């Protein structure tokens, strides 16, 4: 049985919950208390030395980092071959979006944490502008077609960018400037087997 070490509040964990849903994979959720820093406890760092969520354990195969987990699940379980396509150019494009998710779009995650956890706001503007730069790149790509990699079906690149783009307003970033991103968010939420997340 697949085990997902997860926090309900975590958009990175949500990427994995979405993928497990799209692939219809049975799994067990193991909640880890992000707010109290349970990821730093020895029982968890023995499993994931990076001390971060999410972390997946597939019958003893442990994978951490949401982008890496998306690749793992697509490679192992996606019979359609569409979520992470084999075609070299398409695969390259998907990897570009995985990197974007881990960089500019992740800045939106930190802006969200700053606001939700009422942390000091000295870095907030910097995080928001980095996130907005990412949203602009997404918006321009999505003006040309429904999905980020230029396919007519979603890929793990879309999943990786989705949660923190979709929750940008929780980090006080107005999404109305990004109409193609807004339409894409609605498109993702309308996919069959989409796993919902509170606040998204
Ligand atoms: N690049 C990692 C980032 C993971 C990450 O930052 N996870 C957060 C929860 S959403 C976490 O566990 N943070 C704890 C910490 O960094 O101390 C991924 O995509 O999985």
- Low-confidence segments, given as residue ranges, are none
Question: What shape does the CA trace take?
Answer: globular
Which sheet architecture does the biggest sheet show? 4 strands, mixed
Strand segment count:
4
Question: What's the alpha carbon Rg, rounded to whole Å?
Answer: 16 Å
CATH architecture of the largest domain: Up-down Bundle
Question: How would you characterize the overall build of this protein?
Answer:
By secondary structure, the chain is an alpha+beta fold. It folds into two domains: 76 residues, Glutaredoxin (3-Layer(aba) Sandwich); 102 residues, Glutathione S-transferase Yfyf (Class Pi), Chain A, domain 2 (Up-down Bundle). It contains eight helices and four strands, in the order E-H-E-H-E-E-H-H-H-H-H-H. Strands 2-1-3-4 form a four-stranded mixed sheet, with helices on one face. Helix 1 links the parallel strand 1 and strand 2. Helix 7 packs across helix 8. It is globular and about 45 Å long. The relative contact order is 0.15. Bound molecules: glutathione. Glutathione binds next to helix 3. The site of glutathione has 12 residues, from helix 3.
């Amino acid at each position: 049985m697949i085990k997902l070490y997860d926090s309900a509040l975590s958009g990175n964990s949500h990427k994995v919950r979405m993928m497990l849903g799209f692939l219809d994979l049975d799994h067990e959720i193991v909640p880890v208390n992000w707010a109290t820093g349970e990821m730093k406890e020895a029982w968890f760092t023995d499993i994931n030395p990076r001390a971060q969520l999410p972390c997946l354990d597939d019958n003893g195969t442990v994978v951490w980092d949401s982008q890496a987990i998306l690749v793992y699940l697509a490679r192992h379980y996606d019979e359609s071959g569409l979520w992470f396509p084999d075609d070299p150019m398409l695969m390259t494009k998907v990897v570009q979006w995985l990197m974007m998710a881990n960089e500019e779009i992740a800045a939106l995650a930190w802006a969200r944490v700053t606001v939700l956890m009422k942390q000091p706001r000295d870095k907030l503007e910097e995080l928001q502008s980095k996130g907005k730069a990412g949203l602009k790149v997404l918006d321009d790509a999505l003006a040309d077609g429904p999905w980020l990699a230029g396919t007519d079906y979603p890929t793990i690149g879309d999943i990786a960018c989705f949660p923190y783009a979709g929750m940008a307003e929780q980090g006080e970033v107005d999404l109305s400037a990004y109409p193609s991103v807004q339409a894409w968010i609605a498109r993702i939420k309308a996919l069959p087997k989409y796993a919902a997340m509170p606040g998204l």
